[in-house]
Amino acid sequence: MKALVKTFAAAALIAVSTFAMAANKPTSKSEKATINLSTADFALEHYVAVTTEGESAGVERLFAEDFNQKIQSANAQSHSREAVVKSLKKQKGEHLNCVVSTDIVEESADYMVAKVTLKFEDFTKTDLVTLVREGNSWKVSKSINSYK
Known about the structure:
The protein is α+β, with helices and mostly antiparallel strands and 148 residues long. It contains 4 helices and 6 strands, in the order αααββαββββ. A 6-stranded mixed beta sheet has the order 2-1-6-5-4-3. The protein is globular and about 40 Å long. Mean pLDDT is 81; it is low at 8-13 and 24-32.
C-alpha cells in the first residue's frame, strides 16, 4: 500500500515538474483562433490539445457547467469546473512529454465516452472523458483519471 502511495506521489511530482519546466514557452497562435465544438470529435480533439499541449483558447466554452473531475488514487480527489479551468489556464503553452492515444468507448447522437491515454516514460495516465451535446455544441461533462 505504501509503495502505491509513493508511486502516485512520484507521478504527481513528475507532472508538476513537467508543467513548471514548460512554463516559459511562447504562447500558441491558436489563441486567436475560433474554437469549433460542433461535433464530439472536434470537442475531444480540443480537450486533448488543452490538457496536453497547453492550448488555452476557448477553455471556458469546452466544459459543461456541471463538469467535475475525479482522480482515482489512494487519496481520491475531486475538482470542480472552476478549479480545472483555472489550472488549465495556468498551464497555457505547456506541452506534456507523452504519447497520447484516444479510443471511443461509446457514442450516440447526444453523448460520447472516450478513453484518453497519456503514456509518459515512467507511468501512464488514463482519462475517461464524457462529452455531451448542449444545443449546437459539445462539451466535456466529466473526467475520471487513473494512474498506473
